[in-house]
Amino acid sequence: FLLIHDTWYDPALKKGRPIAELPIPETVRTQGDAAVRKYQDDHRLAYQAEVPVNWCPALGTVLANEEVIDGKSERGGHPVVRMPLRQWLLRITAYAERLLEDLEPLNWSESIKLMQRNWIGRSTGASVRFASAAGDIEVFTTRPDTLFGATYAVLAPEHPLVDALTTPSWPAGTPALWTGGHATPAEAVDEYRRAASRRSDLERQADTKTKTGVFTGSYATNPVNGTDIPVFVADYVLMGYGTGAIMAVPGQDQRDWDFAEAFDLPIIRTVQPPDDFDGKAYVGTGPAINSEFLDGVDVAPAKERIIAWLEERGSGEGTVTYKLRDWLFSRQRYWGEPFPIVYDEDDMPIAVPESELPVLLPEIDDYEPVTSDDENSMPEPPLGRAADWVEVELDLGDGPKTYRRELNTMPQWAGSCWYELRYLDPTNEDAFIDPEVERYWMGPASTNDTGGVDLYVGGVEHAVLHLLYARLWHKVLFDLGYLSSCEPFRRLYNQGYIQAAAYTDERGFYVDATSVVAKDGQFFLGDAEVTREFGKMGKSLKNSVSPDEMYDRYGADTLRLYEMFTGPLDQSRPWDTTAVVGVYRLLQRIWRLLVDEETGASRVVDVPLDDGSRRVLHRTIDAVRLGMEELRFNVSVAKITELNNHLTAVFGDAEGTPREAAEPLVLILAPLAPHIAEELWASMGHERSLAWEAFPSADPTWLAVDEVELPVQVNGKVRGHVTVPAGAADDAIEQAALQVDRVAAALHGKQVRRVVVVSNRMINFVVT
Q: What is the pTM of this model?
């Protein structure tokens, strides 16, 4: 945190730099140390601000936007309200462009990349200033070409200008529709703000026809034509995107059209729709209309022309904005990293010197957050109860003084942002990671390589939480010279979910799945019938299954092998314990192949392997290696099963199993079932662990295919199979196929129009 707190982002160099290197304008320097300090604070990557936050009274803490789902907390599903609070934030927006650009070379699924792109939400357009009695209202729009159609403006309920724009009384002639039935604008706005605070951002942005809002009593001036337009407060505008204010162009935006219809506001089209268009708002392209000097110009050149016009007159400029908001970094919990920050007598935050690190949590009797059912309650951090810890005497350069510690703690993401780095060097007491260790494990292999962890297996639910935050943290450390890799995870692989039966009662609430009893095809919790469904195994559905019973009965290797054999790693699959017996028997058969059941002596013998078995062995090694590389462990298990079946058929009743096959079999089994593999390896006389042995490599000589079996089709339907030499000529394949009885019967009395042969794949007779 200190590294980020003492860092700023240099847009010219596109990297973070120490705050000491921040250029201070001379006009700021002449104002004294306080002005310099404020200027630095306004540029730091870690800063404090009073911002609308997601306050969850039931949890007693503030949540990040990403931890709120449909207006409720991700953990527990409790109601969340919006309220202003002074909090620590990390300026992730400074890195928005790099977070987008550096996605491209990563070996991640396109769906995860798309989720991050959408979350960052890059938009190009213009910032436009609308003059008002409270000062300029700045809006961001991606369609500046539609400015002539702006007939009203809307501010988010949290916008800082709302109070200044709210007039003491309604202007003469204010339509009743605009007042919400209130006597004054202040009453209308206050009531509306309270209602909006109970709705999540997703609810506020829902594409519903019913639009709500109230008039502030003020007007703003459209810079392109001087028209005064009313300023409303409406919750479909968010402070978390753009400037928290919009110019509403109902002719070209359906939400604005719906609002304009609800409040009887003017609608002016600025883009000519096609002759056959019969909708309301037209969002397509076409020539500009009702736009004076833009009339007849298509959308793209019209955007360029209006931006130049605005910049010439100082009424706006072309700009890029992001949907991404700065990362809310404060939590009102006990369990979390304490901030290494203290406050002086002027309530100014000061970083604790390195000699005082680490700052450790105090031991307190009650570390539960103060929870409440009252949505108007205020956060009370549990650390505030540790009076002896809160106040601390330090000498920070001007003699011993008493300071007050920060009472908030960091979110859980603070640790998960960089744990992959600390795992590499966990006992280092001088640095979070030795540079040489980092370069060895995570350094880029080439100029086109970002570096980072070779493979990260994780759930898709982390796409805009841990993964995005870890990328920011990593880039800051890279910019400051602590890392050689600029990305934390080279390759990302999303595993599927393990699914299990879940049950809901008559209220639709999930109940403990382990307490449900099946009777005559129905399911009961006590005497009450419940409804069964299948879903992701976890706490939320109350359908978690402990693997302990399977472990106790069959052992860890069977449990591991079962999990990997149930299907491809990236696919969701049900938890079906009846299938475990199959993999348990596979391990038993491998053991019997290599160990005498009666004496416990090794059955491995030093005799040559026959060519047929050698070919099967090397093809298995090749297939298992490929399955491992592609994370298709179920394929690897299936191929090992085939090899064991072959070796058992050939050597099960023989004097023993040749070492040439036995040792590779155990080595390819080891990553999947390490415990039994170690036992088998030792039984063959090896004193050193197989962990030090190389994974077997297939000999290409034995991978060559002598014969292939081809499906024979008649008009696309398989009628039989034929075995031919690999690479056989088309006419030879045709003649062999004609000898297959079922094929000959299907062709009897038919005229063959064409024969299609796909080398080493198939043959198809097209007949009439």
A: 0.76
